[in-house]
């Protein structure tokens, strides 16, 4: 088990994780970052800034960056945090399983 820190960042904001959490792998860290994003989406759904999670190791080095789902500009697609989260989760699962086909 290693300690990882899940810093929440935006284009002009940074919320550091001062405590961190212990995980056995980067895959487990990725799952935790997705859970953080899922919990935060309702609070940033109308925020036009780009948000992400920087996962850092105990030495402070960023080992992974996980992006929040985004809304497309000019009304191409309405932002629906529940649908967006489901889309990205499904896409990530398909990519991890080796399937490259993307459902509409």
Secondary-structure class: alpha+beta
Radius of gyration: 15 Å
The share of residues in helices is 25-40%
Number of domains: 1
- What would the principal axes of the Cα set say about the shape? globular
Characterize the largest beta sheet: strand count, sense, and whether it forms a barrel: 5 strands, antiparallel
Note the quaternary state here.
Answer: single chain
Helix-strand pattern: EEEHEEH
- What fraction of residues sit in β-strands? 25-35%
* Number of distinct beta strands: 5
| Continuous helix count | 2
Average pLDDT level:
78
The stretches of 5 or more residues where confidence is low (pLDDT under 50) are 72-78, 100-104
Between the first and last Cα atoms, what is the distance in angstroms?
38 Å
Chain-wise SSE layout:
Elements: E1 2-10, E2 13-15, E3 21-23, H1 26-44, E4 51-56, E5 62-67, H2 81-96
Antiparallel strand pairs: 1-2, 1-3, 1-4, 4-5
Can you describe this structure?
The chain has 104 residues and is α+β, with helices and mostly antiparallel strands. It has one domain (2-96). 34% of the residues lie in helices and 26% in strands. It is built from two helices and five strands, in the order E-E-E-H-E-E-H. The protein has helices spanning 26-44, 81-96, and strands spanning 2-10, 13-15, 21-23, 51-56, 62-67. Strands 1, 2, 3, 4 and 5 form a five-stranded antiparallel beta sheet that branches. Strand 4 (51-56) and strand 5 (62-67) form a beta hairpin. The longest helix is centred in the middle third of the chain and has 19 residues, at 26-44. It is globular and about 35 Å long. The N and C termini lie far apart (38 Å). 12% of the residues are buried.
